Amino acid sequence: QVRLVESGGGLVQAGGSLRLACAASGIKLDVMGWYRQVPGKQREVVATVTSGGSTNYADSMKGRFTISRDGAKNTVYLQINSLKPEDTAVYYCYAQLVTRPYWGQGTQVTVSS
Description:
58% strand, seven-stranded mixed sheet, 11 strands, mainly beta, four-stranded antiparallel sheet, globular
């Protein structure tokens, strides 16, 4: 059974930074990553990283978002810099084993102007 536990969300002023963390229990996963969702909108991908360390970012997320992975801790991180009010969303940890997806419970990030 795979369990994903996110941490690091919160309230931050515009221009600030946050680092989200997602710890996975269970076996090593092929892909880990982050999505985000604003109420009333579809969940969108932020970034993913493979077990080999290859990263992929949504075009709109390049520059201020950095994803990283600690294989020993089975944890994926998302560093967000220069936060903007439009970054306000619930951020979900995502993981994939072969073709099966797993989701965390989500962590709220709120950016005040």
